[in-house]
Structure formats: C-alpha cells, structure tokens
Amino acid sequence: MNAMTPSTRKKLRATQALPVFRGDQFSVLFGVNQGEPISFADELMLDDVYELEKKAEPSKLVVSNGSDELRITSDSEVGTADCQIIVDCTVTLMSPDGTTIEGLVLVEVEDDEAVETYLMPLAHLASRMEYTLVGVNRTDARRRFAEAACVAFTRGTHITMASGAQVPIEELRVGDRVLTRDEGPREIRWIGQNTRRAMGEFAPVLIRKGTLNNENDLIVSSDHRLFIYQRDDAIGAGRSEVLVKVRHLINGDSVRRLEGGFVDYFQLLFDNHQIIYAEGIAAESLLVDTRTRAALPEDVDAALAEAMGAHEERHHLDYEVCETLLSPDAAEMLRRASTR
C-alpha cells in the first residue's frame, strides 16, 4: 500500500452512523419537566417519567471526527451538516418491570448555542412505555460513546498470529505478535473488552463461512471495515484495494445481524492502525480518533501517543468505499472479484 502524505491524512475522516431519537420524540409524560423533551444533564430531573412517542423509529445521525470534536455530515438524516455534536451525559432509565436501559444524550451545537438534543439508546426502547429517569452521569459519557464507536471482534474469532497459528481472540495477551498485512508481525499494544446488548445498531453482524472466502463464520461489529483485494474492479471503486464497512454488506442471508441477548466485544490496538486477519479475512484493528480515544486507559493513550510520534501515522481510510457503490449483492460480487 502506498504511504499517505500528511495533506492526505488531514482530509480523511472516519464516519459513524448513530441510531438516535430526536429529543421531542422522547419527552416527559409526568414529573417536574412534564411535556419537555429529553435534554442535557443540567436540565434533567431524576424520577421524571418519559415516554417514546408512538411508532417512533430511530434516525441515523452521521458524524465524522475532526481534530478534537464531532461534526454532523451531509449524509445525516437529522441535524445540520457541519454542526458540532457534544456527548453530554449517560442516562439510566427504568421500565415498569425494573429493567434498566442506558442511553447517551447528544447535543447539536451551532454558533455556541444548543439547537437540538438527541437520545442514543444503548438498548431497545419500546414506544408508549413509561421509563423513569433513575440516573444521570456526565463523567462516563465519552467513554460509553467511545466503546460504541470502537470496531470490535466477537468472542471466539480466530486471529492469525505471526507464527501462522489461529488463536481465539479472548486468548490473546498484550505483547503477543499478530500478522499484519502492511508491516508483518506486530505486538498488541492493548486489548479492550466490553459486553453490550445485541440490539439494533449494536447487534453484531454474521458473515457466513465462505461468503467472502472466510474460513469460518465471522461475527463483528457492524461498523467494522474489511479490506478486500479485487482482481477486477467489480464495484466501480476505481481501484483494486477497497475497505468496506460490514453494515453495507448486510443482505439478510449470508450477511445478517444477530439480535438478542448480549455480545462480548474485543478490540485490538497496535501502535498504528493495522489490517490483520480474522477467520481468514483481512480486517482492520482499532483506529484511535476523536470518537474512540476515550475508550483507552490513560496510560495506554499516553504510550500510544509516544509510539506514534516515533514514526509516520498509518491508517487506511482512503481505501474506504461509500455505500452508494455497494448493491444488495455486493458481498457476492466482492467474493467473485477477489477469487478470479
């Protein structure tokens, strides 16, 4: 792969589609703020009872990372392009049966003024159900957002080591040497792990064995990017090497979401963004940026910054293809193109 120039790197931005409800879709049914939409932490009152309006469906709030902030993109279904998004707080809601659900309150800011609030639920919210606000936390909101933004493999995924061995991801340790596409054997800097409800946008995606010439079923987070070499340009990307988000390959059959229960996610971090091999597929490691940095322990973040300062930054976003190039049969097209 060709090295990117600094000017190229500045133009590249990782984007993420966030499932959100507008503030006015989730409002106080009764309580101190009766009739008011969900808002930022300073205006929330514990024990207020909220309700999601009838037949409300989440919209996609698409954000990109800038140097130190999140911005709405022109592809977003809600909000105004280029407005800043602030991750304000984590809220904990309790349903009538005692089940607790967490969500993130996001605030859209224009000219230093809050113009809209959004609720990003971290589990399924049912319409016309009463939810009591039982917790508001401002200190962990960025960390929870970062965990949701991190690309991740699931428990049981086999990773190709420098020796060629195939090792389940949960058995890996910091310092183990993994085979990378661009730089050969590289040591793992950090391994992240978290458990989430496998619901909606946070449900993992199954890529069945053989769908992309993978040796076994591969299950990853939906924003995970796969690196595919096409022997001919089947999708019209203008190049043979492409990076494709798994969510854009979902076809309901050979590539589909697995909803229900909980899922254990694992993140692998190296001194640089890498392409590694999982179940025989070339897939990205964790990319540290504005969205994901808060997921790292402080000592790991500091050590990573020092390591990256010693050599040129590498990431692969210039190989990513947009969704418009990917038809419902894109997975099959890419499989054929990569084996001819």
In words, what does this structure look like?
With 340 residues, this protein is mostly beta strands. Helix content is 11%, strand content 37%. It has helices at residues 6-11, 141-149, 298-309, 330-339; strands at 15-22, 26-30, 49-52, 59-65, 70-72, 84-94, 100-110, 113-121, 130-137, 153-154, 158-160, 166-168, 177-180, 184-187, 190-197, 205-207, 218-220, 225-229, 241-245, 255-257, 262-269, 275-278, 281-284.
Radius of gyration: 21 Å
Poorly predicted runs of 5 or more residues: 1-12
Question: What average pLDDT do the residues reach?
Answer: 88
Q: For the terminal residues, how far apart are their CA atoms?
A: 21 Å
Number of helices: 4
Share of helical residues: 10-25%
Anisotropy-based shape: globular
Outline the fold blueprint.
Blueprint lengths: L5 H6 L3 E8 L3 E5 L18 E4 L6 E7 L4 E3 L11 E11 L5 E11 L2 E9 L8 E8 L3 H9 L3 E2 L3 E3 L5 E3 L8 E4 L3 E4 L2 E8 L7 E3 L10 E3 L4 E5 L11 E5 L9 E3 L4 E8 L5 E4 L2 E4 L13 H12 L20 H10 L1
Antiparallel strand pairs: 1-4, 1-8, 2-3, 3-9, 4-5, 5-6, 6-7, 6-9, 7-8, 10-21, 11-12, 13-14, 15-21, 16-17, 16-20, 18-19, 22-23
